[in-house]
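Page 42, continued from yesterday. The earlier attempt failed because a stray header line got pasted into the input along with the sequence. Redoing it now with the clean sequence only.
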Amino acid sequence: MMAKATGGIPIVPLTWSYLGYLITPHPLGGCTMGTDPNTSVVDHRGRVWGQPNLYVADGAIVPEAIGANPSRTIATLAERIAAILVAEGR
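This time it went through. Structure tokens are written below.
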């Protein structure tokens, strides 16, 4: 959907096609998203566990490599978090 909206062409990385493993040279993680504050830094809304009004909406929340050029995924996550903040009236 994001590829179509931006005029891109989705391509499956060769490392996934042949090895079943995704890699990326982009720095990701550091504030990983998850469902448990003991194993992640933010929830699916980008909210930092235990820190009201603190959000992260960039590549830091991606918990692991997601393939070549994750910029569209990161942009989509940031847009989703922004939409949630607007919907909540923030």
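Notes: Residues 2-6+22-87 form one domain.
Reminder to self: strip header lines before submitting.
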